[in-house]
Amino acid sequence: MRLKYRGQSYEYEPVDATVEESEMSGSNxxxxxxxxxxxxxxxxxxxxxxxxxxxxYQTDEVGEQALGSxxxxxxxxxxxxxxxxxxxxxxxxxxxEQMHLENIQKRLQxxxxxxxxxxxxxxxxALEDEMSQMVCHI
Length: 138
Hints:
This protein is of the alpha+beta class. The protein folds into two domains: 2-59, no CATH class; 80-137. Helices cover 41% and strands 26% of the residues. The strands form three sheets. Strands 1-2 form a two-stranded antiparallel sheet. A two-stranded antiparallel sheet has the order 3-4. β1 and β2 form a beta hairpin. The termini are far apart.
């Protein structure tokens, strides 16, 4: 069927929307029924030559990467300065993570103290359970 949208003509081919019956069945208000689902119909795509971060590859009709399309490049050498800065960054991230966990523990401890002052034993039990789970992750 030939159609036109905003001045552009195109050929429309309706998709066969066949429905398959499932093994599952159910009932609602004493009425039995069988579940059904549409059959998966792959939509063909145009093969394309693409580039991602300087690496060229191509896709096939299914949209997956075509085999053998990647070029393998040797790893770039890493300078000693870059290694040092990476180690520094990793150490900084570990320090920040440790500080974050300590802050969470302090807040939980404060909340436990407030709940104890109120006499809310259910909340105290829940917060202590949360604290014990926190200790397991450290």
